[in-house]
Structure formats: structure tokens, C-alpha cells
């Protein structure tokens, strides 16, 4: 059969891309049409996303995709939790970046009204200070009539329709994990106006046709289809699993480590271990823990490069792989590593304060970071399995981190489980698959989608 052309917009915290996919009932082929950097921009009031700049790149990428193939549909995913506030359709300022520290006040405000354990029962989320609920509690909302999460904002700009895609909405802390609908009781207690939350849609639903001026500009009559618009939800769709007993690690800026379940786990043990119940595609639950991820490495490199030197990451990792000096095994989950800036210095101070060994080279520090991430990954896999009762015999490591051989090898060693690495572009693939199914190109449940991935991509296996 003739392949069908589908575009995926995938915005990560460090880079965004527009991918063009050609899909048949049994295969998917990806081509990158645009890639652009992304990151926080600091203005006097705090850390922001340059979301108009991102939109400009997205439009250019989509135009190029439409030039190369007759694109039938477009799906958008991004990192979670962050949103723009709108009044009468107009964005009221650039969205805040989740690493902005204004959220501390919001955490206090919310917990004063709804204590942490109650909040966990109401939304099933691990405590992350930047969950949307805490951010909104730090905003003035009197004049606001809509809050749109980043992928929903872009979909609105493309189609004119305001919706909240459900997997990403699940990261706000305002969705009831039992019903998958906005938690009206919680909103009322927190004094958050429910009018600002748009109607929910599920992955696979059509959001709309392109607005006439957009269709003109892109030279396309594609429709925008809702996907797992939380990037992690899309990544989990594209895990090339061939049996159900797997854990996943979606590793990019963050390392999201967990299992896929049919129902949320809302136990005290789960809350104490800071495990989250996020919404997955097809009503599944992503029971996972946020590990700091490659952020520790890329942000250290940014500090090392501040003096004008250039750090070649693949070279550094190759040196780290053969490094045999002292290694600092530190807690990669320490909240002190959340904010941007001086990461290498902060890690070294963290280790010194705790009497850990101090490597004397960048390769040594890179090794320490990767070892510490691998240890945190292995730990989270074990905990996910214990807390959920799900057997795990394989770890699928997908996303940019799957290119990091050292990380894959050490994760296998530390977990005692085989690690299957790849695909690198899992998020874009998951985004595309959900569209392909909505278009009727591919049929079946997640298992069927995953077998298409398994048949279409190269993976590498690391034995423990
Ligand atoms: C990964 C991710 C995580 C989320 C974090 C912040 O890109 O979406 O799942 O916790 O970014 O939004």
C-alpha cells in the first residue's frame, strides 16, 4: 500500500523538531524536517519559554513537511505542566518555565488548604514543585478565561479550537485519576476558576482543520489530531515491547522510569516513594517516577563551556566509559539540581558536603553523573515493580538517552535486567502512531502499535 504522510511536532525542553512520517499498516519511516534549540529565557520576572519563537519554527517545519509530502494530519506533543493564560483568545505573556522558582509560594498556598496526602488521593501525582496546580496557585487569574497547556496552545493557534488533551491534562494535578475528568471539588477548594480549563479530548480525536490563514501559509489542508500530547505519553506508546512484562525509561532532559498499568496505584507507599499516576494513551496509567535525567549532564556541560571552550559530548562520554578513577555515586534525584545554572559546581558541592569521592577530571564527573543516573534508574524500576506488583523482565530505554551506551550498559548492570535501547525518536513515533490509527492506517491497541515499532526500528540490547 501507498504510505500515508503524517507530521509530528515534538517539543522537548532542550530541542524541538518537526518530523515527517510515512506510514503503512505495518511500518513507519521517519524523516526529520526541522530541528531547533529550546531552553529557558530569563527576564526580570523569571524564567520563560519563548513560545512564539517555537511556533515560528513549528510553522516553518510544517511548511517544509507539506512541501515534501501530502501531509494528512499533524500531532503536537511537548513537555508537560506548563501553560499560557489567555483572555479573549489573546495570550497574556510568555508561559513560565517549570524551572522558575516562583512555584515555592504556590506549593505553600496549596498545601495550606489541601495537605499533601489528601492532594495525592485527589490527583495521584508525585510531588513536583512545578505541577500546574502549584503554578496556578501563584498566578492572578481574575481576568483570565483560559489556561492552555503548551501543545494545546499550539493546536489552538493552528485550528482556533481550545481543548485540553487528556494525557497532558493529567500532569496538571487538577484531574481526578479515577474518572479522568477535571476535579471540580479540588478546583473549588483551591479557589481555582473551572472556566479556565477547556473541554478534555482524548488522543486520537480530531481537534480541527487548519485555520484558513494557516492552511494558506503551510500550503496544506491537514487536520490537527490529538495525540498523547504529553511527550512521555507518546514515548511510552512507542516502546518496542513484545511482551507485557516491561519497564520503560524515557530518557531525555528527564528520565521517566516506570510501568504501564490499567488502574492507578494510590497507596501511601507509592506516595512516599514519590511515584506518579499520569494518564497514558488508551486509558492506561503511566505509573512512574521522574529522575533528573540528562539535564545533569547537559547543564554541567553548559557550565564547562562558559569559559568559551567546547565540550564534545560523545568524546567526553567515551572518556567517561574508560575512566577508572574515583566515582561519586550521588543522589541524582536531589531537588537541589532542579534549577538551571552552575550544575557542575553544585554537583561537586553536593558530593563534598556528603563526603563522597571527588573525581579530578571532567571525564570523572561525567562518569559520576551517568553512574548516579543509572543507579537511580535501576532503583526506580525495582520500586515501580514492587509498588505496582507488575513483573518486569526487560527494561526499554527510549529517547535521546538510548544513544548513550554507557548509560544503557550501567543501567543493565545496576538493575540486573536486560536493557533494550531505542528508538531515539520514540516520542515522535508514538505521536505519529496515534494519528495513523485515527486515520485508519493502522488498527489495534497499544500492543499492535508496538509491534509496528518493533518491526520498523533498530534496537540494541545490553545484557546485565
Ligand atoms: C519530559 C517531561 C516529564 C515532565 C517534565 C516537565 O519531557 O514531560 O514527563 O515531568 O518534562 O514537564
UniProtKB/TrEMBL annotation:
<dbReference type="GO" id="GO:0019301">
    <property type="term" value="P:rhamnose catabolic process"/>
</dbReference>
<dbReference type="Pfam" id="PF02782">
    <property type="entry name" value="FGGY_C"/>
</dbReference>
<dbReference type="InterPro" id="IPR000577">
    <property type="entry name" value="Carb_kinase_FGGY"/>
</dbReference>
<dbReference type="GO" id="GO:0008993">
    <property type="term" value="F:rhamnulokinase activity"/>
</dbReference>
<dbReference type="InterPro" id="IPR013449">
    <property type="entry name" value="Rhamnulokinase"/>
</dbReference>
<dbReference type="Pfam" id="PF00370">
    <property type="entry name" value="FGGY_N"/>
</dbReference>
<keyword id="KW-0547">Nucleotide-binding</keyword>
<keyword id="KW-1015">Disulfide bond</keyword>
<feature type="domain" description="Carbohydrate kinase FGGY N-terminal">
    <location>
        <begin position="7"/>
        <end position="237"/>
    </location>
</feature>
<keyword id="KW-0067">ATP-binding</keyword>
<dbReference type="InterPro" id="IPR043129">
    <property type="entry name" value="ATPase_NBD"/>
</dbReference>
<keyword id="KW-0684">Rhamnose metabolism</keyword>
<dbReference type="GO" id="GO:0006071">
    <property type="term" value="P:glycerol metabolic process"/>
</dbReference>
<dbReference type="InterPro" id="IPR018485">
    <property type="entry name" value="FGGY_C"/>
</dbReference>
<keyword id="KW-0808">Transferase</keyword>
<comment type="similarity">
    <text>Belongs to the FGGY kinase family.</text>
</comment>
<dbReference type="InterPro" id="IPR018484">
    <property type="entry name" value="FGGY_N"/>
</dbReference>
<dbReference type="GO" id="GO:0005829">
    <property type="term" value="C:cytosol"/>
</dbReference>
<feature type="domain" description="Carbohydrate kinase FGGY C-terminal">
    <location>
        <begin position="247"/>
        <end position="438"/>
    </location>
</feature>
<dbReference type="GO" id="GO:0005524">
    <property type="term" value="F:ATP binding"/>
</dbReference>
<dbReference type="GO" id="GO:0004370">
    <property type="term" value="F:glycerol kinase activity"/>
</dbReference>
<keyword id="KW-0418">Kinase</keyword>
<protein>
    <submittedName>
        <fullName>Rhamnulokinase</fullName>
    </submittedName>
</protein>
Amino acid at each position: 500500500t501507498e504510505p500515508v504522510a503524517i507530521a509530528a511536532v515534538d517539543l522537548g525542553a532542550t530541542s524541538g523538531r518537526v518530523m515527517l512520517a510515512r506510514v503503512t499498516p505495518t511500518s513507519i519511516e521517519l524523516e526529520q524536517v526541522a530541528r531547533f534549540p529550546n531552553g529557558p529565557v530569563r527576564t526580570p520576572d523569571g524564567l520563560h519559554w519563548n513560545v512564539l519563537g517555537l511556533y515560528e519554527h513549528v510553522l516553518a517545519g510544517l511548511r517544509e513537511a507539506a512541501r515534501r509530502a501530502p501531509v494528512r494530519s499533524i500531532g503536537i506533543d511537548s513537555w508537560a505542566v506548563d501553560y499560557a493564560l489567555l483572555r479573549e483568545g489573546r495570550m497574556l505573556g510568555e508561559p513560565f518555565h517549570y524551572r522558575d522558582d516562583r512555584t515555592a509560594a504556590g506549593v505553600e498556598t496549596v498545601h495550606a488548604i489541601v495537605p499533601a496526602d489528601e492532594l495525592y488521593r485527589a490527583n495521584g501525582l508525585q510531588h513536583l514543585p512545578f505541577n500546574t496546580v502549584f503554578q496556578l496557585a501563584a498566578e492572578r487569574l481574575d481576568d483570565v478565561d483560559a489556561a492552555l497547556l503548551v501543545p494545546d496552545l499550539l493546536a489552538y493557534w493552528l485550528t482556533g479550537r481550545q481543548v485540553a488533551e487528556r494525557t497532558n491534562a493529567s500532569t496538571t494535578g487538577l484531574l481526578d485519576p479515577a474518572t479522568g475528568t477535571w476535579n471540580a471539588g479540588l478546583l473549588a477548594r483551591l479557589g481555582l476558576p473551572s472556566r479556565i480549563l477547556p473541554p478534555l479530548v482524548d488522543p486520537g480525536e480530531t481537534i480541527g482543520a487548519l485555520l484558513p490563514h494557516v492552511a494558506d501559509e503551510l500550503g496544506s489542508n491537514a487536520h490537527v489530531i490529538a495525540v498523547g500530547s504529553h511527550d512521555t505519553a507518546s514515548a511510552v506508546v512507542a516502546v518496542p515491547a513484545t511482551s507485557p512484562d516491561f519497564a520503560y525509561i524515557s530518557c531525555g532532559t528527564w528520565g521517566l522510569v516506570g510501568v504501564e498499568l490499567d488502574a492507578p496505584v494510590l497507596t501511601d507507599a507509592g506516595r512516599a516513594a514519590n511515584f506518579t499516576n499520569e494518564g497514558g494513551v488508551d486509558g492506561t496509567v503511566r505509573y512512574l517516577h521522574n529522575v533528573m535525567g540528562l539535564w545533569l549532564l547537559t547543564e554541567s556541560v553548559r557550565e564547562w563551556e562558559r569559559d568559551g571552550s567546547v565540550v564534545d559530548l560523545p568524546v567526553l562520554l567515551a572518556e567517561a566509559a574508560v575512566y577508572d578513577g574515583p566515582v561519586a555515586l550521588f543522589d541524582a534525584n536531589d531537588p537541589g539540581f532542579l534549577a538551571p545554572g552552575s550544575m557542575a559546581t553544585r554537583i561537586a558541592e553536593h558530593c563534598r558536603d556528603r563526603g563522597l569521592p571527588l573525581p579530578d577530571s571532567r571525564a570523572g564527573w561525567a562518569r559520576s553523573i551517568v553512574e548516579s543516573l543509572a543507579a537511580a534508574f535501576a532503583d526506580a524500576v525495582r520500586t515501580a515493580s514492587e509498588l505496582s506488583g507488575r513483573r518486569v523482565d526487560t527494561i526499554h530505554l527510549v529517547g535521546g538517552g538510548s544513544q548513550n551506551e554507557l548509560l544503557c550498559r550501567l543501567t543493565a548492570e545496576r538493575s540486573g535486567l536486560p536493557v533494550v535501547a531505542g528508538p531515539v525518536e520514540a516520542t515522535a513515533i508514538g505521536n505519529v502512531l496515534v494519528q495513523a490509527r485515527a486515520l485508519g492506517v493502522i488498527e489495534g491497541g497499544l500492543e499492535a502499535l508496538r509491534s509496528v515499532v518493533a518491526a520498523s526500528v533498530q534496537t540494541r540490547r545490553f545484557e546485565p
